[in-house]
Amino acid sequence: xxxxxxxxEQGYVVIPEGINKEExxxxxxxxxxxxxKSNLSTLLPTDILKYxxxxxxxxxxxxxxxxxxxxxxxxxxxxNFTIRESVYIPWHNDAYFLPDEVINPEAxxxxxxxxxxxxxxxxxHGGGITLIPFSHRLDQTTVKSMxxxxxxxxxxxxxxAGDLILWDNRITHKSSYPDKAxxxxxxxxxxxxxxxxxxxEPYLQYLRDRAQRxxxxxxxxxxxxxxxxxxxPNVLYPNSFQPDSLNIMKQQNIQFIGL
Length: 259
Ligand SMILES: O=C(O)CCC(=O)C(=O)O
Known about the structure:
Bound molecules: 2-oxoglutaric acid
CATH class: Mainly Beta
Shape: globular
Low-confidence stretches: none
Radius of gyration: 17 Å
Helix content: 25-40%
Oligomer: single chain
Mean pLDDT: 96
CATH architecture: Sandwich
């Protein structure tokens, strides 16, 4: 199945080897150093921008080409790029706050969540994402009733370290929970891309609001990502971006939409 058909029908796509081993090690080393300095387990976007080798992973040709192919057009970035350590988030949906014309099951894809997990995923050790395929095309009442017996519908995405996973932000998903203690720290590089022309403002308002109040299951977890949301207004275009990053974004026609 091609990627366009796959995301339309199943709500997600896995692009194998989005990044290579060297890049995985580079991002892991950056996380370790930066998390130690900032004492945060969800890194700040402004810290990522200071280290273009890491930010440029998001701008890699292979990554950008896959996103453009799926959207069928150019896309925009929000200031919500981060690296997160060992988040384990229960079942949730990241689109229900958007207007009905974006989230209704017939609407075309407008927002995609992107994740590169820096370790393999498997049912024993976790390390990636589990989702309900096709749930982006179901109404909220149906999905809610499916969550009474999620084992009947869920799919553990058996991704390998460095794979790029893209999902329609209407899909219902959770972290893959480990049965056993993981071999190494679970890390993920995560960001959102938009092909929307009319609905970016409600998305941005949601990002602003999450700096002020708890609105998402992950806001209630012991390691709240509040400082990450509070940092987003500090990402200013073009001043927060390095000249190299601005050049790649220009060449790739990637627009940045700040708060
Ligand atoms: O990375 C994970 O474990 C879960 C990510 C997630 O649920 C999200 O980004 O909404």
